[in-house]
Design a protein that fits this description.
By secondary structure, the chain is mainly α. Helix content is 59%, strand content 0%.
Length: 109
């Protein structure tokens, strides 16, 4: 059976490139989120877990810089998404004391 890729276009421009501008934007968001976590702190009852989540985010963020320097924008973009996934997860389950819905999937204060 021959399978075809189905593309749905809802009138928006196809978003199928990882550009320098897109990477810069995602680096900015991740770096601001990491900074906010460091400034706001952690749930004191789960500090080891919070530090682990932040460490994972920083490692993926660092990997993203490495991949960008090598010119591998796809892996850089993927690493940034993993980094922010760790940040979002930590915020969502309350490990990080952040309340900013522009950087995390949490409610604002």
């Amino acid at each position: 059976m021959n399978k075809k890729l189905i593309r749905i276009n809802f009138g928006a421009k196809m978003n199928n490139e990882v550009t320098t501008e897109k990477l810069d934007n995602y680096f900015d968001v991740s770096n601001r989120a990491i900074k906010m976590v460091e400034e706001k702190g952690f749930d004191k009852s789960r500090i080891d877990q919070a530090k682990d989540f932040l460490d994972m985010a920083k490692r993926y963020n660092s990997d993203a810089y490495h991949f960008r320097e090598k010119g591998d924008y796809v892996l850089a973009f993927a690493a940034l998404n993993y980094a922010h996934g760790w940040l979002d997860a930590g915020a969502r389950i309350g490990l990080f004391l952040v309340k900013d819905s522009t950087l995390f999937t949490v409610d604002d204060e």
